[in-house]
Design a protein that fits this description.
By secondary structure, this protein is of the alpha/beta class. The chain is built from 10 helices and 11 strands. The protein starts with a helix and ends with a helix. Bound molecules: adenosine-5'-triphosphate (ATP) and magnesium ion. Adenosine-5'-triphosphate (ATP) binds at residues 33, 35-41, 63, 72, 75-76, 174, 235, 237.
Length: 260
C-alpha cells in the first residue's frame, strides 16, 4: 500500500497544508463549532471533493433536508446530482428518534448491554461508502436525552463499525465555543471526544471593533504531525471554504482588522 492509499487529502488546499500528509484513511474526525460556524458547508465540501476523486460518500443528515443540502451545494457551483447519478453520493435525511428507539429495542432484546453489537442503524444496505458524514452527533444525542449511557453505547458501537469497515468519517458536533480571541478551547468531556481520531474546530471570532470572522483549527489528528495554530478561513460564494494557513488568529488580527 502506498501513501496515497493510507492518507486522504480534503482538496481544501489551505486546510491540507495544516494536515500535511492528509487524514489517515479510516479515521473518525469530529468537526466542531458553534451555530453557523460552517460545519455543514465544510463537510459538504469534503463530500464534493471526495466524489471528484471517485470516492463514495454517504451524507447522513439529522438536521437539514436533502433538498436544502443540495441548495447549499449549488450555491458553491457544486453538482450533487451528477455524483448521485454516478453512484458516488448519497445525501439522506434520517430521524434521530429512529436510532434511539432501535437502540432501546435492541437493548431490551439483548438484556445485557455488553452483549449488543449494534449494526449501524439506518445505514443503507445497498451502498458501501468510503466516507460517512454525520450531521450531527448533537442531533442524535438529543434523541437520547436523559439516557446518556445509551448514547455512549451507541457511539462506541458506531465508531467500532466505522473502524472495522475502514470508513473515514466526519462527525459534526455543535459546541459552544470561544467567540473572541485568547480563550482556550475546553473539552466538554463528552464520550465521543476520546473515541475520535481527529478534531477540527471551526471558530467564530469577534474582534474588538465588533467585526466577526471565521477561523479553523486542527486540534488533533492521530498519526499526523499537524500544524497547531488557529487560522483564518472564509466561506466564499461560488467557491466554498477557503482556509488561509498563514493567517494566524491572535498575533496579527488587531493590525489587519484596524486597517479595514
Ligand atoms: N453560498 C454561500 N456563499 C457564502 N456564504 C455562505 C453560502 N451559504 C452559506 N454561507 C454561510 O455559511 C454560514 C454557515 O454555514 P453552515 O450551515 O455550514 O453552518 P453550520 O455550522 O452547519 O450551522 P448550524 O449549526 O446551524 O448547522 C452561513 O451562516 C452563511 O453565512
Ligand atoms: Mg449545519
Amino acid at each position: 500500500m502506498d501513501t496515497k492509499e493510507k492518507f486522504s487529502k480534503s482538496g481544501i488546499k489551505g486546510f491540507d497544508k495544516l494536515i500535511r500528509k492528509g487524514i489517515p484513511i479510516g479515521s473518525s474526525v469530529l468537526v466542531e463549532g458553534g451555530p453557523g460556524s460552517g460545519k455543514t458547508i465544510f463537510c459538504l465540501q469534503i463530500a464534493n471533493n471526495a466524489c471528484l476523486r471517485g470516492k463514495k460518500v454517504l451524507y447522513m443528515s439529522f438536521e437539514e433536508p436533502e433538498r436544502k443540502l443540495k441548495e447549499h451545494m449549488h450555491g458553491f457551483n457544486w453538482n450533487p446530482e451528477k455524483f448521485e447519478k454516478q453512484g458516488l453520493l448519497r445525501l439522506e435525511r434520517f430521524r434521530a428518534i429512529d436510532i434511539s428507539r432501535s437502540v432501546e429495542a435492541m437493548l431490551s432484546e439483548a438484556k445485557r448491554e455488553l452483549l449488543i453489537d449494534i449494526h449501524p442503524i439506518l445505514m443503507p444496505k445497498d451502498f458501501s461508502p468510503d466516507i460517512v458524514i454525520v450531521d450531527s452527533l448533537s442531533a442524535i444525542a438529543a434523541a437520547f436525552s436523559g439516557r446518556e449511557s445509551r448514547f455512549r453505547i451507541y457511539m462506541e458501537q458506531f465508531f467500532r463499525y466505522l473502524e472495522r469497515s475502514n470508513i473515514t468519517s466526519f462527525l459534526i458536533r455543535e459546541v459552544t465555543h470561544p467567540t473572541h480571541l485568547r480563550t482556550s478551547y475546553s473539552e466538554k468531556g463528552e464520550a465521543v471526544s476520546f473515541l475520535a481520531d481527529g478534531i477540527i474546530v471551526l471558530y467564530d471570532i469577534l474582534d474588538k471593533y465588533g467585526k466577526r470572522s471565521s477561523a479553523l483549527e486542527v486540534l488533533k489528528m492521530r498519526g499526523i504531525n499537524i500544524k497547531r495554530k488557529i487560522v483564518e478561513m472564509k466561506i466564499v460564494e461560488n467557491k466554498g471554504i477557503v482556509v488561509y494557513p498563514n493567517l494566524i488568529i491572535g498575533e496579527n488580527i488587531k493590525t489587519r482588522f484596524s486597517l479595514t
